[in-house]
TrEMBL record:
InterPro entries: AA-Vitamin_Transporters, EamA_dom, EmrE-like. It comes from Marinoscillum luteum. Gene3D superfamilies: 1.10.3730.20. This is DMT family transporter. Residues 7-141, 155-288 form the EamA domain. Keywords: Cell membrane, Membrane, Transmembrane, Transmembrane helix. The chain crosses the membrane at residues 39-57, 69-94, 100-118, 127-147, 153-173, 185-205, 217-236, 248-267, 273-289. It is a multi-pass membrane protein. It is found in: Cell membrane. It holds the Pfam family EamA. Its main location: membrane.
Length: 295
């Protein structure tokens, strides 16, 4: 039997790698002329029954006040609906590998939001890490502008940044709720809220009939729901429970690296040497920013 920590490491790596496949699946689906709202709907609708079943067998760990449920609804809407919507929109305009690198700055946004709204101190090392991270983003952004259409790169990058910002807001705001609900129950409830928000969005907009797409779109939506949403969401929750948030964060840099590799294999995307340099700077900055002050 595997030692507990080894199991946590395996769960962390597997969850991160599966999550990183989402951007590639979205880009593959866009090749079949599916709109953003419909694709997001397929991801969530295929996920919903699984989350409902798991939620039914995982009640909150303690008595939860009504206002806490209201906060959960808010953070589920922000973190899993808005963040996903901005992300899917942004992937229309930029490469999957660039999407993951920009999205990867969310830990620095967590630090900044916590500093502004919760008055949490930021160490000098973390400030340097934030600066280094955004320097890496700037290197990649300038490089991509030199080889792609300016307007599409800017729009796509802004949308992905908004995705990172909303997800970071969710992490900051929901941190105090997870101990009350438990990781599994909170994840299930938040995802159910997100699914409901996407269904409402689709019902109001109704861009295309649900049966008007090519079969590949539905298969990709199903794969995205199971392998890039449901399974990794719980793997990551269990990994954090075993390793702790700080140790888990060490494996976060695998996400962009995995996406770059998958985007190359399945989409034929490539990065310039300058962009690889920027990717290295971003990863180094995140690692530095996430280090806690010892002593």
């Amino acid at each position: 039997m595997l030692p507990k920590k080894s199991l946590g490491v395996i769960l962390a790596i597997t969850g991160i790698l599966l999550f990183s496949s989402k951007a590639v699946m979205v880009k593959l689906a866009y090749q079949y002329e599916v709109d953003t709202v419909s694709l997001l709907l397929f991801r969530m609708v295929f996920s919903l029954p699984i989350y409902v079943v798991i939620a039914a067998f995982n009640r909150p760990m303690e008595k939860v006040a009504g206002k806490d449920y209201m906060w959960l609804i808010l953070f589920g809407f922000i973190g899993y609906y808005l963040a996903s919507y901005f992300d899917f929109l942004g992937l229309i305009y930029i490469k999957a590998s660039l999407e993951r690198l920009i999205l990867f700055i969310y830990p620095t946004l967590v630090l900044l939001i916590s500093f502004v709204f919760l008055r949490k101190k930021i160490t000098r090392k973390q400030v340097i890490g934030v600066v280094v991270t955004y320097l890496g983003v700037l290197i990649i952004f300038v490089s991509e502008l030199s080889i792609s259409d300016d307007s599409s790169v800017i729009l796509g990058s802004v949308l992905i940044f908004l995705s990172a910002l909303t997800y970071a807001s969710y992490l900051v705001g929901s941190g105090w709720l997870i101990p009350k609900f438990g990781a599994t129950a909170f994840t299930s409830y938040a995802m159910i809220v997100s699914c409901m928000a996407v269904i409402l969005h689709y019902s109001l907009q109704r861009p295309v009939g649900l049966l008007d797409f090519q079969p590949e779109v539905y298969w990709i939506g199903l794969a995205m729901a199971i392998f890039a949403t449901v399974i990794p969401s719980y793997l990551v929750s269990f990994a954090i429970k075993i390793l702790g948030a700080n140790d888990f964060s060490i494996f976060g840099s695998l996400g962009p690296i995995s996406t770059i590799g998958l985007a190359y294999l399945f989409l034929g995307e490539t990065l310039t040497w300058t962009q690889f340099l920027g990717a290295g700077v971003i990863i180094g900055g995140i690692v530095l920013a996430e280090k806690k002050k010892k002593g």
